[in-house]
# Entry
Amino acid sequence: MNDFNELINGLCRPFPSEVMQPRHDGHGVYIPIRYYIERLNQVAGDQWSHERIGEPIFYEEDKFVHTVVKVTIMGRSHVGEGFSRYQTDDKGKIINRHYAIRSATKDGIRDAISFFGIGRDLESFTKPTVAKVAKVEGSERIDHTTQKITCIKCDKELSDYEVRLLQSNNVKLTYCEDHIPSHFFKK
# Structure
């Protein structure tokens, strides 16, 4: 694949529900990082890479390690942050330093690829849906209809892919893929 948009479309396909796991805090679901890495390897192959930027930062009072990770797909990059808990022995020495850094790096990869739109399908599982409440003769009725999003140039309804493309590039105006100005894409 040498077309960036085609590649991103393949990466942003919804994940099967079987891979979604309940979050430990009880708020929604998550997808284990191995499925993201598998998707990246299958769809992007050698056209993606990651690198940890700087040294990990250890926060003693919270027992967290923090990393910053840059993910590049076909020459376009996003940076993500990752966090992981670490464990100490009775003398305060970190006993799982390597695994904590590795876990935080994987979390950083997941954060960085979210800026490309990968995993966006989880939002429907973790965020409540917005519904309009309408007054109907003294009672309230919830209107669950969704608002149609259209291109501001041609009035064509945007596809899910086009909406994700705009979101991943922080474009607030609603353009279809054919009309989005090139200067709106991050480099």
In short: Residues 28 and 124 are 9 Å apart (CA to CA). Confidence is low (pLDDT under 50) at residues 125-146. The first helix runs from residue 4 to 11.
